[in-house]
Amino acid sequence: MKRKITLKQIAKELDVSISTVSKALRNSIEISEDTRQKVQAFAKLYNYRPNNIALSLKNRKTKTIGIIIPEIVHHFFSKVITGIELVANKRGYNVIVGLSNESFDKEVINMQMLANGSIDGFILSIAKETLQQQDYHHFTETINQGMPIVMFDRVVNEIPCDKVIVDDVKGAKQAVEKLIKNGCKNIAIISTKDYVSVGKLRTQGYLDALEDHKITPKASLILKIEDKLMSDDHLDKLEKEIEQLFQSNKSIDGIFAVNELYAVTAIKVARKLGLEIPKSLQVISFSDGVLSKHSTPSLTTVSQHGQEIGEEAANLLINRLESEETDYNDETDEVYETVVIETNLIERESTKN
Amino acid sequence: MKRKITLKQIAKELDVSISTVSKALRNSIEISEDTRQKVQAFAKLYNYRPNNIALSLKNRKTKTIGIIIPEIVHHFFSKVITGIELVANKRGYNVIVGLSNESFDKEVINMQMLANGSIDGFILSIAKETLQQQDYHHFTETINQGMPIVMFDRVVNEIPCDKVIVDDVKGAKQAVEKLIKNGCKNIAIISTKDYVSVGKLRTQGYLDALEDHKITPKASLILKIEDKLMSDDHLDKLEKEIEQLFQSNKSIDGIFAVNELYAVTAIKVARKLGLEIPKSLQVISFSDGVLSKHSTPSLTTVSQHGQEIGEEAANLLINRLESEETDYNDETDEVYETVVIETNLIERESTKN
DNA sequence: ATAAGTTGCGAAAACGTTTTCGTGTTAAAA
DNA sequence: TTTTAACACGAAAACGTTTTCGCAACTTAT
Questions:
Q1: Range with lowest mean pLDDT among B208-222, B227-241, B305-319
Q2: B120 by DSSP, 3-state: which?
C-alpha cells in the first residue's frame, strides 16, 4: 500500500530541494535544463500528481462546487446535475452532491458540512420544508461568509444571489392556452399546495390564461395536492383525490398538471372512468421526464430544459467565483442576476393537434 | 466579504496562542475552565468551524467518497446514489460525483481528477466503452496507490476490489420461469450486445430457464440491441428492430426485456400490431424505474434494489477505509468481498397472475 | 525551605504545495 | 584582476489545523 508520491520524496530521491522539484515541474526558467529533465522524468515515472488538498489549502479555493438538491431520483434534478457537471468539468471544477431529502434540517446540515472549506460555492434548489418554514438563515449566513450561492427552480426572492428559473407562469399559461385553443371548455388544474413556489406560479399561469380568454375560473376545477402524496406509497390516495375531481366535474375536457406523475395518474383515472384521450380529454403536463415520452399516450408537456438550467447555473457560479479573484474592489456592486430559461411546449399524443 | 474566521484570528483577538484556542475548543483538560469558556464563547459568537481542507491535509484523509457512474439521468443510478449518500452522510462522509457519460476517456479523467487527494475511495460502475475496450489500467493504478474501489452492477472480475452486484442470471431466470409458468410458449428476449456485462448475464439467465424447462432456444427469439439505441434519439430505430422481431415471430407470447425502455417500447409495438397485454403477450422487465410503475399497463419487473446496492457499497467502502486506519499490518490479507443483492419479482399488470 | 508534583499555556512540527527572496557560483564585462 | 551580471538552486513562509513536548509558575509534601 504505497501512498502517492510527494514533492518531498522526489526531492529526497534526487537530492535537490523541494522548491527545485516544484519549479522544475512547472517549467520554471530558474531551473537548468538538466535538472528539469531529470525531475520531470522521475515524476513521470512515479506518476506524480500534485495533491489537490494541499493546493486547495494554499490557494484557498477548492475548485469544487457544492450542489444541494431535494432528491436525485427525479428526472428534472438529475438533468440539472448533468448540466452542472458538464460545464463544471469543462471549466476545471468538481461537483459534490448533498441531498436534502426535502428536509430543512438535512439541508442545513449538508450546507454546513460543505461550507467549511470543502467547496467554493453552492448551486441549490430549496427543500419543500424550508419553503414551508420560510427559514432562510442558512442561506444568508453562507452568503455573508463570502460563499456565493446560485439557486435554481425553487428560489426565494429575498435572498441576494444569482438565480436560474423557468418562467413558470408563462409556461403554464401557454399550456392552458393550447388547451383552450384546442377547444377545451372545462379545464382543470392539478397542482400542489401553494407553499411550493413552482406550484403556486403554475397555478397563476393557469388563472392568467383563463382570464385572458374571459373564462371564469371555478374553484372546483382547481385541485391542490398535499405534497406528501408525491411519494409512491401514497399513489392510491392521489388517485382518489383525482377521481373525486372527475366525479364532481363531469364536464372536464382538459387537464393541466404541474408534474408528470399527476398527469399520468390523471390519465389512468380518466381512462378508468371511460374517457378517451385526447378525444374527450386532453392533458398537458409540466416536466420533461421519461414518463412523458414513453407512457401511452405520450404526454404533451411544457419542457423545462433541466440540463440547460444546470449549465446556466454552473456558468453563473463559476463566473462569479472567478471574477472575485480579480475584483479587489470588494463591497462594491453586489448585483445579482436572474436568468430565465424559456420553456417550450412539446406536443405529443395527449392533446389534439 | 468577510472570510471564515480561523484559529489564528481567534488567538490574536483573545491574546492567547493558537494551540490554546484549538485545545480549548476541543475541551482539552490542559486548558483552564476560565480560558476555555472565554474561547468557546468567542468561537460561538463568530460561528467558528474548523476548515475541512486543513483537516483533510493534516489527517491525510478527506472523509469524502468519489462516485463515478456512466450517467445520472437514470433511475437505477440515481437510486444507487441515494443509497450511497444516505449511509455516507450517516457515517460522516460526503460524496463527490463524476459522470463518465459511458466514455472511457471521461472515466479516466474523472478518476484522475479525484484521485489526487480529493477523496478517500471510489464507488463506481464501469462505462460501456471501458467494458468494450477492456482497458482497466486506471482501476489497477488507483488501487495500487492505496485507494480502495468498490464496484457495483457493472463490474469486472479481474480487478481486485469489493463488489456489489445483483444476481443477474438468477433474476433473469426467475423472470423467464414466471413467464413459462404463466403459459408462455414462445418467449423472446430483448437484450443488449454481450459486451455489456449485465446484458450478457441476463441473457444467460434466460437461456438457463429455457434449458431447465426443456425448451430449445431459438436464435430468432433473441434480440441483442446495439446499445447506442438507448438514447431517445434512436427510439424509432429501436422500435423498428423490435417490430422486426414480432413480424418474423408471429407466435411470440412472452417478452423478457433487460431494461424498462425495451419493455415499454416492446409493448408499444406489440399493441400497434394488435396484441393484447397481458392476454396474448406477457412482458417482464429488469429494472425498477418509474416507467414500470406508471405506464399502462404497469410492468412486472425484476427489481434491482438500487438504493440497497448503494448502501451496501458505501458500507463496504467505509468499512475498508476505517479498518485500514487501525490495520498496521499492511500487505496482509487483501481479501475482497462480493456482495450479491437479491432481486425479486414485482408482479404488475403486464403478466397474468 | 527545598524537592516534587500540578497546572496552564506556548512553540513548533507536520500535512503538501507554491512562491518570494536570498545566496553562492560562474561567466561576462570593465 | 576586479566588478557586475546571469544562473541555478535552497530556505522559509504561508494556507489552517492538531498534537507533542517543553517550560514556567504555582501548590503540595517533606
A1: B227-241
A2: coil
**Where are the domains positioned within chain B?**
7-50, 61-165+307-326+335-341, 168-304
Helix, strand, or coil (residue B141): helix
Is residue B299 predicted with pLDDT exceeding 90?
Answer: yes
Of the candidates A49, A184, A67, the one whose C-alpha atom is nearest the C-alpha of residue A120 is: A67
Given the DSSP bridges, would you call strands A254-257 and A282-286 parallel, antiparallel or unpaired? parallel
* Predicted confidence (pLDDT) per residue in B62-111, tens digit: 999 999 999 999 999 999 999 999 999 999 999 999 999 999 999 999 99
Domain A62-165+307-341: state its class: alpha beta
The whole-number pLDDT of residue B1 equals: 57
How many of the other CB atoms lie within 10 Å of CB of A237? 13
Q: Distance (Å) from CA A57 to C1' D15? A: 5
Helix (H, G, I), strand (E, B) or coil at A63: coil
Q: Is B209 exposed, middle or buried (0-12, 13-18, 19+ CB in 10 A)?
A: buried
Q: For residue B328, give the H/E element and its range.
A: none
- Pairing label, strands B222-225, B254-257: unpaired
Tell me, rounded to whole angstroms, the distance of Cα B117 from its chain centroid. Answer: 23
Low-confidence ranges of chain A (pLDDT < 70): 1-2, 228-232, 325-333
Q: Where are the alpha helices (DSSP H) in A15-150?
A: 18-25, 33-45, 52-59, 75-90, 104-115, 128-133, 137-144
Would you state the pLDDT for residue B287? Answer: 86
Residues 20-39 of B with CB under 8 A from A: none
> Residues of B numbered 156-215 whose beta carbons fall under 8 angstroms of chain A's beta carbons: which are they?
none
| Residue of B142, B294, B299 to mutate, interface with A, max A Cβ within 10 Å | B294
Rounded distance between C-alpha atoms, residue B188 and residue B255, angstroms? 5
Distance CA B205, CA B169 (A): 4
At residue B305, the pLDDT reads: 96
* % of chain B surpassing 70 pLDDT: 95
Q: Say whether domain A168-304 belongs to CATH 3.40.50.2300.
A: yes
A61 touches chain B (CB under 8 A): no
- Match 479481474 to its residue by C-alpha cell: B158
CATH topology of domain B61-165+307-326+335-341: Rossmann fold (3.40.50)
Q: B56: which chain A residues are within 8 Å (Cβ-Cβ)?
A: 53
Test the A interface: residue of B52, B85, B119, B122 with most A CBs within 10 Å: B52
Of A1, A141, A271, the CB nearest to B331: A1
Cα separation of A232 and A294, whole Å? 19
Q: Which of A182, A171, A188 lies closest to A278 in space, CA to CA? A: A182
Q: What is the pLDDT of residues A51-100, one digit of tens each?
A: 999 999 999 999 999 999 999 999 999 999 999 999 999 999 999 999 99
Write the pLDDT tens digit of every residue in A15-58. 999 999 999 999 999 999 999 999 999 999 999 999 999 999 99
B61-165+307-326+335-341 and B168-304, same CATH topology: yes
pLDDT at site A331: 47
Q: Give nearest nucleotide to B11 (CA–C1').
A: C10
Q: Does at least one atom of strand D sit less than 7 Å from the CB of B2?
A: no
Q: Are A56 and A63 in contact (CB under 8 A)?
A: yes
Which of A72, A97, A294 is closest, CB to CB, to B291? A294
Q: Cell 432562510 identifies what position?
A: A136
B/e letters for B30-58, b = 16+ CB within 10 Å, e = fewer, are: ebeeeebebbbebbeeeebeebbbbbbbe
